[in-house]
Write a structure and sequence with these properties.
This protein is α+β, with helices and mostly antiparallel strands. It has 13 helices and eleven strands. It has three domains: 151 residues, no CATH class; 59 residues, no CATH class; 121 residues, Butyryl-CoA Dehydrogenase, subunit A, domain 2 (Beta Barrel), CATH 2.40.110.10.
């Protein structure tokens, strides 16, 4: 027999339950804003947002969630740019999440956003729009909230806390046109790479293609996304090679109008027969950090020294050299930056005639094929 449980409640508890049962969503928003923002700021925001959220939004989200969205809207009003939220509702599968985009004044074009999300390794399941109309003080301005339901294309679960900032950074970079949208971007989620690290992978892929390698870029993208550990290993090697504490890491320093490149390339196959050498270099940027650059260096430039690196008596002809760069002067037109868009950059530099006219396109492609690294 089940025991009968009797719960005794005080009058004040019963009254509190009645108040809670009769409280409207707007009442909850008022209480949540004051609790989070304080009395003065809470009431100021309430004058703008008390009647801003449509019924459909109120059915999907509690007032406390609206406070977080108000914070995002306020950020957009200050920056005049998109704000983003990546979250996973309680009880949602590990490979699913939701992604909110806050856009001022107008709706976003879904046919633009959906391919970007797919290139980031996601499949769009649904999209729920909400029109937020700002009240007094907001001058009736409209803010669109696009709430996307997404899942990983691979079906793998993800740690949303670990990927959140990287994902938002990558999406904004693509949205603003600073980074290309292709399947390499899925390495942000599947491989744990940053947007900047994906640029490195993309850069070498494009230079290999421009050098005439038979493998298509689509095939390279597919391989990397299926084997993200390989991409991580490449970035690990890249990071090690360009660690500024390594004396042989290739770096560039400004001197007058030109760059001075120092470092080494180990190994460097076919180095003795090249007309042109390419070298990945760490180029200082305005923020005091560094960015990836690829320097195109004519082989006859002063300061280039070639030394034996290794050879094998087992494999006939298997040998390699080390190329030492000692304060080699490089014209700024011969330093390419992958994050500003790669297509056609090499062709434009060749057409300008920044180096000797005797350097033919075939020489350039042959050198690149041998030395993109």
């Amino acid at each position: 027999m089940d025991a009968l449980t009797v719960v005794f409640r005080t009058r004040s508890q019963i009254e509190a339950d009645v108040v809670e049962a009769t409280r409207t969503w707007s009442d909850g928003l008022r209480a949540a804003l004051i609790a989070v923002q304080g009395e003065e700021q809470g009431h100021a925001l309430l004058r703008v947002y008390a009647d801003a959220f449509p019924p459909g939004y109120q059915e999907r989200f509690i007032a406390e969630e609206a406070v977080a969205d108000i914070d995002k809207i306020e950020q957009s009003l200050v920056s005049q740019d998109l704000s983003l939220t990546l979250y996973r509702p309680f009880g949602t599968a590990e490979n699913r999440m939701r992604f909110k985009i806050f856009q001022l004044d107008r709706s976003i074009i879904l046919s633009t956003v959906v391919p970007m999300l797919e290139d980031l390794g996601l499949r769009v399941v649904d999209e729920v729009p909400h029109v937020v109309r700002l009240g007094p003080g907001g001058d009736g301005r409209i803010v669109m909230i696009h709430d996307f339901g997404v899942e990983t294309r691979s079906g793998n679960g993800i740690d949303i806390g670990a990927v959140r900032e990287r994902f938002k950074e990558a999406f904004l970079a693509v949205w603003k046109g600073g980074v290309e949208s292709d399947r390499f971007n899925s390495l942000v989620i599947e491989g744990g790479l940053t947007c900047r690290e994906v640029v490195v992978i993309r850069a070498y892929s494009k230079y290999l293609r421009q050098a005439g390698i038979a493998i298509s870029e689509a095939y390279m993208q597919e391989t990397m996304t299926r084997h993200p550990g390989l991409a991580c290993a490449i970035i690990g090697l890249f990071t090690t090679l360009f660690d500024p504490t390594r004396t042989e890491a290739a770096t560039a320093a400004r001197e007058g109008d030109n760059w001075r490149v120092s470092g080494s390339k180990r190994p460097c196959s076919l180095s003795r027969s090249m007309d042109l050498l390419t070298a990945s270099v760490a180029v200082p940027d305005e923020d005091g950090g560094s960015r990836l650059g690829v320097a195109l260096i004519p082989a006859e430039s002063p300061g280039i020294r070639v030394e034996p690196f290794w050879s094998s008596w087992v494999l006939a002809g298997a040998e390699s050299d080390a190329v030492i760069l000692e304060d080699v002067e490089v014209h700024p037109d011969l330093v390419v930056y992958p994050e500003i868009g790669l297509d056609g950059q090499l062709d434009r530099r060749i057409d300008r005639g920044a180096w000797s006219a005797s350097t033919r396109r075939a020489d350039v492609r042959g050198a690149l094929y041998a030395r993109v690294a």
